[in-house]
Amino acid sequence: MIRFDHITKKYPGTTRPALNSIDVEILRGEFVFLVGASGSGKSSCLRLVLKEEKPTSGSIHVLGQDLRSISNRKVPYFRRNMGVVFQDFRLLPNKTVFDNVAFSLQVIGKSRGFIQEAVPDTLKMVGLAEKSQRLPHELSGGEQQRVAIARAIVNKPQILLADEPTGNLDPTTSAEIMSLLASINASGTTVIMATHEAGIVDQMQRRVIELVHGEIVRDERQGGYATASIPTILPAPTTDAPASEPAPVAAVYARPAAAPKPALTHPSAPVPETSLSLHQAAAAAVAAAASPVSSPVSRPEPAAPAPVVVPPTEDAPHTPVPPMTRPVLPVAQDDEPEQLTLAEKLGLRAPGEKPDQTGEQNVGPTR
Ligand SMILES: Nc1ncnc2c1ncn2[C@@H]1O[C@H](COP(=O)(O)OP(=O)(O)OP(=O)(O)O)[C@@H](O)[C@H]1O
């Protein structure tokens, strides 16, 4: 489903690669944690999957497609197979819960009838059926993240990428969000989540890929946040094992002991201005499109791991969830026209594509 072959990513103006010859394969239906210290390359991995960034060398296959073969203009369509959830929610503050979720369907031209059916179903699934007419600032942080998740899955994406989705939430609320993500995964959606939160990773006992300085030092089928042993699982030979099948446990080989595990502190290094991150671009789009409101954007210290109680996956409600996600990402840099609509900024529509009557707001360039 997702395969990195010898992926190296070096950002302009940097000496050390953010990712250094990464080989990894993620199968359909897996739930994968990306862990590692700030700057270890987690977000870079997600940006590469989304084709927000291009690798310096190596090849990436997502959903059977070599990303090099997808033109920049086609990127928004490619991203319709993926949903994205951020730490800071990225909701449209002047739109109701319903409209926030409906927005992502409107911009890809779904019919009114489809929207009227899909949005309530999805809000029900995330436990917000009763709050569809609220504005984001009338919701708790956990509820806002549920809206963001609803927006990400309403079009049934095959892959859900979550970048620190619990980073702004307290442990109890984080556990609820993890239960929801587990439920979405149980329905067949592949979930890849970057996190610093040890308690969550330890409770979930899912596949853990640990990065240190852009290299994979651990890949465990059912791992915790930190493990004494550092086995690495070789990519399985087949790419698209169905979700219903148990993920094949591939050969395990011992890798040379990795560098000492760095302190897993929260991000502190500023991202160079030369490249707007996925987070920054989407946040800027939302901020530009609306009046000041809700979304907390500051990154708090990591939550204390111990108190997090995440229901085991097996116990997660197997609510029918459509397997899929929606793009909430900015379009590729080199494809950006000077004036983008919000939908274009969020990666929902190709730049220049004719907008429909969705109340979409124009926003100026963010870089
Ligand atoms: N646009 C960019 N331009 C230059 N360097 C970048 C850019 N984005 C990331 N980097 C660098 O690449 C490395 C990996 O960054 P990345 O954001 O992928 O790490 P991360 O593990 O997600 O960190 P965090 O947990 O803080 O989000 C870091 O050294 C970072 O400074």
UniProtKB/TrEMBL annotation:
Residues 294-367 are annotated as: Disordered. GO terms for molecular function: ATP binding; ATP hydrolysis activity; transmembrane transporter activity. It comes from the Bacteria. It is found in: Cell membrane. Keywords: ATP-binding, Cell cycle, Cell division, Cell membrane, Membrane, Nucleotide-binding. GO terms for biological process: cell division. Residues 2-238 form the ABC transporter domain. It is a peripheral membrane protein. Transmembrane segments: none annotated. PANTHER family: CELL DIVISION ATP-BINDING PROTEIN FTSE, IMPORT ATP-BINDING PROTEIN. Homodimer. Forms a membrane-associated complex with FtsX. This is Cell division ATP-binding protein FtsE.
